[in-house]
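Re-run with default settings, no changes from the original entry. Doing this only to confirm the output is reproducible before filing.
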Amino acid sequence: MEDVLRPIAVLGGSVVVALVLVRLADRTLLRVDAAHPETPLWGLLRRCRIPLQVTLCAALLRGAYDETGLRTVEEHEAGIGQTLSLVLIAATAWLAIRAAAAIVESSYSRYAASARDAARLRRVRTQVTLIQRVVTAVVTVVAAASMLLTFPEMRTVGTSMLASAGLLGIVAGIAAQSTLGNLFAGLQIAFGDMVRIGDTVVVDGEWGTVEEITLTFLTVRTWDERRITMPVSYFTGKPFENWSRGGAQMTGTVFFHLDHSAPVEKMRQHLLEVLQECPDWDGRAWSLVVTDTTPSTILVRALVTARDADAIWAVRCEVRERMLEWLRTEHAYALPRISTAPAELDRPPGAGRLRD
């Protein structure tokens, strides 16, 4: 009877103790979260329930599995211990990543709740996102290395490999030159405030919004919902336009090619009326001037302002549509025309005749 109850007590007891401890920790976090709703950390830490259960269960089983007295366990003691060690390392890494993500997200949420500067908020968001990715990468690498070192063969090989570490480092550096360049470029973008998540940029002639920044690549969402994925080293080695840098406010222009008889002063007055009815115009500035002329037309430029790139696009489109409609209905003569009638040339007497 003891041969049956002992393994059940050891194995079942380890699982039950792990579940009870996790349940108590979850209830404690729930109460603390209810008592301090201004701090989202406690609620976010509850996401660590599953990795915490796996970690505690693996740790308890790792310490008590050899007390079961089972013949199978005694015959495969080294293999079972090795497996439980690997599970424990992986679960610990999983728990560390979840906890770090909760802390980072909580810090960003508290900062976002009190921040008023949108540009600075995007900068902090970019930094915490990349910091979280760095932490995840470091924990994963350390966990993988720890799992490999649990194998005796790997420890022996590792000792012999130290002698050739310099040569291997040079070879790896040459082979991973592009990857390492992107990695350091990602860190430079995160802490150099060159480009941030949510910034409006123009790269390779494409206008869009930065949607994601990782340690190696950056994703730009264009106005027509396409995604452009580029290496982060592009933004450290080539010029690009960042329309959100130094503030989101923007100035836009609308050009009209009109006849020389166009009523410029009336156009100026009507432009102001259009802008006053446009909800996207921020009221900072506006103007309408003749910037160029040709033998058949004049070039009229309307200047408008708005709070950001999306708003300036809407203002420019509305000004263009309403001004053209007003010119077509009220001053059709101002629109450019192409003359197809033959011209009557006044020639001086005797012109065009051949001399004797």
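The longest strand covers residues 281-293. Strands lie at 200-203, 206-213, 217-222, 227-231, 241-242, 250-258, 281-293, 298-306.
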